[in-house]
Predict the 3D structure of the following.
Amino acid sequence: MQGRKDIAVKQSIPKHLRYTVEDFNREFPNDDACLEHIAEERFPGGRAPCEKCGVERKHYRVSGRTAYACDHCGNHIYPLAGTIFEKTTTSLRLWFYAMYLMGSTRCGISAKQIQRETGVTYKTAWRMFREIRTLLSEDLRLDGPTEMDETYFGGRIRSHQRKERSHDNKTAIIGMVERKGRAVAKTAISAGARTLHRLAKEHILPSNTVYTDEATGYDKLASLTDDAGKNLHSSKIYVMGDIHTNTVEGFWSLIKRGIGGVYHAVSQKYLQTYLDEYTFRYNRRDQGNLLFKSILAEVSKRASKSRASVGSEIPRE
């Protein structure tokens, strides 16, 4: 269009939350840099329990291997052991890059896109994302005013069901979202009262006020919490003061638009892992591009938990 001036697009992410692809390439230029990062996260300063010596010792990298050797007896430890990278034949840097891409998008990224960008096979890309998603599950207890709602995903509507709503061939998902806070989303066999009450008891503190719609499954929810407010959707009353479920409805919109637009279809078997990805991202939406670092931190955190009992029995030198 003639006469139109170019308008600079303002960067929406604050400077301290930016982590560009140039930053990624600078910090992780090769597999060795990735291995060193994991080793430092799991064994700060190179000090780790040596099973042979029986005490904590300094360890040094073994050239050409993913092992580190004790400086006293030469016994080897493996930083990748117990992580999602254990026994992988795929480049560590490609794993890191896949995590970076997953953390840099608000809607998710498909395995097909990873295949195109990295050159790995689709099977490898899909397996990488499946393993990364195992890091993203969280066991949360929500604190503060919480909205609770159910939705249904997947399945096909049969011709005789089109005139009336039917969820027989769909997967129920129960969502709980703190206002201006965190979210939990769980797949369930049904959205009956027993399931709703069990999940509320597991993930919502009794001191919370819970806001729901008028579904009968929530009728006795007030007995589990201090208070419960209902939204009369059937009467087309969607907001009544503080009583509404707009937050959780917005959360459903993010998930449905993301899965529908990026993945198109997700099987019931793996649906929970996709929900874990979206809730992990939603709960850290204030981290900008640094979400990648949060995903990466889960690698060492989860692997270290499995060794915590062993490490606690080995005294420091």
Notes: The chain is about 35% helix and 15% strand. Confidence is low (pLDDT under 50) at residues 309-317.
